[in-house]
């Protein structure tokens, strides 16, 4: 268990672009499972080793006390399968007769993703011309979707360790991008 935890902590540091900038250009255009640490600069490697040494030397009481495994699992469970299904729907080849039903199915999936974050006072205008000209009605829905998973953690502020701040940033950026795309769709 301890060895698995150390491996997980070490791995997530290699995605800290401020800590390990030499790996950023090596990942451009690659899927995540193709990422490698080969080519890391000696300076970046030393920074990661220093950060790990600090994390290992820190008594458990100095951590923020957040169950990060659960936080990350919630984000994955909330979005992963539905986004995969939406992607499958978007990539289907259709005959002309089923396009309307297909579009409705995609919209239903998008609404399901956003439903927990829907602010019911935020409704689109009645006229389609106005609704298409401005999407300002969707801003509160996007904001709630993008911030809900990290809001209570962010309020802890300075009590987070550097590793926890990195994880918080990852949760924020991931949910922001998911919610931006889904809301825009």
Report on this model:
This protein folds into two domains: 2-57, no CATH class; 68-184, no CATH class. It has 185 residues and is mainly α. It has nine helices and no strands. It starts with a helix and ends with a helix. The model is unreliable at 1-9 (pLDDT under 50).
Oligomer: single chain
Report the total helices.
9
For the biggest sheet, the summary is: none
Please indicate the percent range of residues in DSSP E strands (runs of 2 or more).
under 5%
Return the average pLDDT rounded to an integer: 78
Overall radius of gyration: 21 Å
Number of strands: 0
C-alpha termini separation: 42 Å
Shape: globular
InterPro entries: YOR389W-like
């Amino acid at each position: 268990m301890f060895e698995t935890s150390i491996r997980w902590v070490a791995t997530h540091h290699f995605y800290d672009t401020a800590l390990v900038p030499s790996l950023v250009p090596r990942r451009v255009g690659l899927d995540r499972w193709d990422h490698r640490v080969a080519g890391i600069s000696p300076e970046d490697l030393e920074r990661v080793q220093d950060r790990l040494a600090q994390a290992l030397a820190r008594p458990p009481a100095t951590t923020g006390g957040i169950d990060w495994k659960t936080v990350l699992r919630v984000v994955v469970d909330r979005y992963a399968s539905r986004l995969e299904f939406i992607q499958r729907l978007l990539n289907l080849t259709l005959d002309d007769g089923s396009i309307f039903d297909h579009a409705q199915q995609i919209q239903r999936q998008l609404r399901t993703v956003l439903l927990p974050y829907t602010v019911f006072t935020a409704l689109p205008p009645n006229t389609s011309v106005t609704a298409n000209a401005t999407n300002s009605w969707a801003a509160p829905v996007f904001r709630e979707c993008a911030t809900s998973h990290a809001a209570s953690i962010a309020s802890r502020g300075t009590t987070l360790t550097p590793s926890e701040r990195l994880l918080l940033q990852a949760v924020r950026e991931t949910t922001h991008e998911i919610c931006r795309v889904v809301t825009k769709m």
